[in-house]
Design brief:
Helices cover about 35% and strands about 25% of the residues. The chain is of the alpha/beta class and about 350 residues long.
């Protein structure tokens, strides 16, 4: 059996810790952000990984934004319905990721690098904020040829989900899947992933966005897009930003999540807002991965052929389950979505 949903992203192992504003200040990190660091540039921030790995409360959890969404979609769709492409090293970290995917029912379609370590992300938590510091490692070496090896699975899939973070790695791989989706009329969903994507990977985004039938982003990514692309509206005006991304494309939908504020869904015919699933503050463990869980729940709904409104609600539902767990994880217990 081939997966219905195919995802593409950067497989990372998360080193998650609760930390202090002082620790973030030491490396000039913002409390709510995602950045890349590179071993090759002798970036002093590379020291974070060793420091965090030696903190007593560190938790090693499966990460990589699109991989988190893939596990989320599988939580709803069941085993072998979701496949995930990405590049990893041949080491203990990738063994753990493969194990977590298998436990979640996700088919790992990894490209394996023999001499580069699996990517890692220090998830530095302060209250409800998270600062993500990533060393992509092997994830940076994904190539479109790897898709060809599994092209039968690509052809058998009914829809695709692309983490915007992958725009830093292989826009060619995204375009390859995008062309297939366009030719076959399959939904092609892209997430903007982080403000630095529209800011610093504008050309790659411009190249890939035309293939997207659905774009998912949060309010800060929307603002970064508006600024980077010089849109003629306030960077906080989600409806106007979405309208300008959709243009007159009858085949494009933009979905902006906005924390606890309603989610804005925009098509060529207009915008609608949907409430989130509120959760008692005391039940929140951490909000790291909430956006990934939203995307996972949304994709599961789309795979099941649900109405857009229901897909959004399934995203909100899965996000509320995920923020009650450490990291971008889902409950051990199987809860079943029922429409409110
Ligand atoms: C290219 N970058 C920076 C990244 C990431 C990333 N996933 C892919 N590429 N930076 C952070 N993440 C993941 O985001 C999740 C939380 O939404 C982390 O691994 C974390 O699991």
């Amino acid at each position: 059996m081939s997966p219905t949903l195919i995802c593409l992203g950067n497989p990372l192992l998360d080193l998650q810790v609760d930390t202090t504003p002082e620790y973030l200040a030491k490396y000039s990190l913002k409390s709510n952000d995602a950045i890349l660091v590179e071993a090759a540039t002798n970036d002093p921030k590379m020291a974070i990984f060793n420091e965090v790995a030696n903190m007593p409360e560190v938790k090693f959890v499966a990460g990589g934004a699109a991989q988190n969404s893939a596990r989320g979609a599988a939580y709803i769709l069941g085993a072998n319905e979701v496949g995930y492409f990405g590049s990893v090293g041949n080491d203990q970290f990738s063994a753990k990721l493969a194990e977590e995917n298998a436990a979640a029912g996700v088919v790992s379609l990894y490209q394996v690098q023999q001499d580069i370590g699996t990517g890692k992300c220090a998830a530095l938590i302060t209250g409800h904020d998270r600062s993500l510091v990533t060393d992509l490692g092997a994830a940076n070496h994904f190539t479109p040829e790897h898709l060809e090896k599994h092209w039968d699975q690509v052809e058998a899939a009914k829809l695709f989900y692309i983490g915007g973070f992958h725009l830093t790695v292989s826009p060619a791989a995204i375009v390859k899947l995008g062309k297939h989706a366009k030719e076959t009329g399959k939904p092609f969903v892209m997430n903007l992933s982080a403000p630095f994507i529209p800011q610093f990977f504008k050309d790659a985004l411009k190249e890939c966005l035309p293939y997207a039938t659905i774009v998912i982003a949060n309010e800060s990514e929307a603002a970064a897009y508006a600024e980077s692309f010089g849109l003629t509206c306030e960077t906080t005006d989600l409806e106007s930003i979405a309208k300008q991304i959709v243009g007159d494309d009858a085949n494009k939908t933009v979905i902006f999540t906005h924390g606890l504020e309603p989610t804005v869904v925009t098509t060529a015919t207009g915008s609608t807002s949907y409430e989130v699933h509120p959760l008692e503050k005391s039940k929140i463990v951490d909000t790291n991965g909430a956006g990934d869980a939203f995307a996972g729940g949304f994709m599961a709904g789309l795979a099941q052929g649900k109405a857009l409104e229901t897909c959004v609600d399934m995203g909100q539902w899965l996000a509320s389950l995920s923020i009650q767990e450490v990291g971008a994880s889902y409950p051990k217990e199987k809860f079943t979505y029922t429409k409110a």
